[in-house]
Amino acid sequence: MRRKVSSKLKKEKGRTAQFVKEVEDILEEMPRGVFRTITSDNGLGFSRLYEFEENDKFLVYYAHPYASYERGSNEINNRLIRRHYKKGKYIKNQPEEKVKYVEDWMNNMPRRLFGYRTANELYKEE
Questions:
Q1: Does the pTM exceed 0.85?
Q2: With the CA atoms of 67, 89, 96 and 8 taken in that order, what torsion angle do they form, in degrees rounded to the nearest 10?
Q3: For the Integrase catalytic domain, which residue ranges apply (predicted)?
């Protein structure tokens, strides 16, 4: 299951350890076993994701540079997010209510990948 969890993380230069900690805190709020894998690009913000693997919490997959096809669901989610936030517009500067609205909209959208069910329906079954 692919469920969208949005948060305005403060990704700033020199804070990769704090960034990973913030991601971990968000994922810890979820019921155990719901998220089994993390697929990452090779950006600096994700350079310490290996810490998740060390704790046996998640399998971490790293996509190759310039291989967006290795992150297909991520690219589709990005396209959906861009319906609400145009490229170059920072989500961290947006009201929390709008971020939550977009997250809810995406999680309640029927997807062919899920047999035309929503991510929220599958999440509740999990």
A1: no
A2: 40
A3: 1-126
